[in-house]
Amino acid sequence: MDDQKAINVLKGLIIDGVHQAKSGHPGGAMSSIDFAYTLFSEYLRFDPKNPAWKGRDRFILSAGHESMLLYSLLYANGWLEIDDLRQFRQLHSRTPGHPENYQTPGVECTTGPLGQGAAMSIGFAIAAKHLGSRLDKELFENKVYALLGDGCMQEGITLAAASYAGHLKLNNLIWYYDKNKIQISGDTSRSCSDNETKVFEGFGWKVIEIDGHNREQIKKALDQTQNLSQPMLIIGDSIMGHGTFSLEGSSKTHGSPLPPEERLATKEKLGLPDEDFYSPAEAISHYQRNFDKKSSEANQWQEALDCKLKGDKSFAELYQHCYSMIQSEKLPSLEWPADKPIATRNAFGDIIEKWCDNLPQLVGGSADLEPSNMTGAFAKKVGDFQSESPEGRNFAFGVREFPMSAICNGIALNGGLVPFDATFLSFADYSRAALRLGAIQKAQVIHEFSHDSFYLGEDGPTHQAVEQVMSLRLIPEFFVMRPADARETEVMMRVALCLQDKQSAICLSRQGLPQLPISQETCQLAKQGAYVVSGDDHANYIIFATGSEVSLALDTAQLIGADKVKVISVPCWELFDQQDEDYKRKILSHHITKRISIEAGVTSGWQKFTGGCGLNVGIDHFGDSAPAKSLAKEYGFTAEAVTNRIKNFFEGAS
Questions:
Q1: Mean of pLDDT values over 26-32
Q2: Catalytic: 651?
């Protein structure tokens, strides 16, 4: 058995998996396999007995539609069974249509939306460089390899993220671009004529162009990855559907199984019998020829780690921080003047500056908005992550919102660090695809979104978040937090830090907000997602509000009569949904039929709290450019205006 025969066996598994599922993408997998096989069998560092070994190199299949390529290799690793390949794209299988990190051992991150895997690989590389600089370079600065296709290279996120990686000189990052020049609609020349070499060299990458099917050239390229001073792009000139009988170079192999006659003829051409999922032991044994060496390296790594944990107290303490669950209740409390309005964005800045010493695993940065997101004090205290200072914990992401959030997903999935990112709430839409993918793959990232409503005023409708909060609430398993004052902000941050496998967004005000007139003990109830701020079940009205509108609700209650209004702060719907039914009934008070919601955003969705006959005070239109006080009066966000609306709406109600 030799490499070519082993590769042909894996090609047969790819063909059969897609054929069995009657769905999938065999062509790209067949064009990429010469590189992937060489990488996995000879260069990639992993423990054959433990896919989750911390010292492993990371492999990211950014071209996620080539999932059968990865599954065939994971099968050859011994991490999947042949029956898993037979169950490709079937319900509850370990081989879904695109790689899912939470379903399949050996899959580092969920990919499929093109370009995000490339950006996440940069997050993995950053995490490895950072942990290596602070813990131990030999133990933790692993290499990160990503496989990209033509579609990945056409996505803007790939280029924006690559620019940042080049700036950071991430010499542990290697991308392989399988340039087969075919996509679903046909030849890439119909839509793209880029010179990737010039582009990436301009970004500060080392670029090598090779024959993607020449394994000697592949090895020479991979040999150069051992001593890099910058990230590396290997461009593999390849043939779509390489090895097929008559469809080499055809877009027909991109997103469909091979036709029955083509499948049989291709197997014959590859020297494979007419046998489904043919996998001779000698092919797998040849692929695994270096596994003893890989296992030995993993054992040596573990011995070195154990020795360092026993002999280096400061290392052991930092390691414990990085790889243990955060106990946020042990973090120091903050205090703000009760008589001074505090913008919740300022409170966030105070919190991360105060806690950064207690949370050495906390890293993050802003999309060129440090003075606005209030992350500047944190940045000054912990230093920037740069090529010459990888120990820095602040990331100067520049104006790259989507890449920023995808990179943070990669940092989180690497393990050892808890990342946050920051921008304006209105720009959450730029990051949305990464927020969604982060939620799917259970990556713990805290997204700070400041300037959360029309109250930033003069910047106008482009910057005034109207639909964003409600839109974010539509993402499953995504926790949207909109605190009402500085103390609620602290409570929400404590919760966010403990959401080990969840994404969260903390939406914060630009304008100062008064401290709620409640005790510290009552404020802690914010972690339930909704709690009583004033009033009781004998009230005539119940008002649900979030963020800056909670104080507005309290002022409104004073005008109506405090004893007539029960005010509920709802900083996080998702946390409230997790509470038991008794608590929910206590908060919702369904017997109070005069129900109102107040939020400086779209009203659709608040019927969940107010029912079909309640009053929903909000903004179902875009904003205007004007001072905040003028807009509040114009839109009816004053206590007098809200009181009048409530009385008019419920006039005559018993």
A1: 98
A2: no
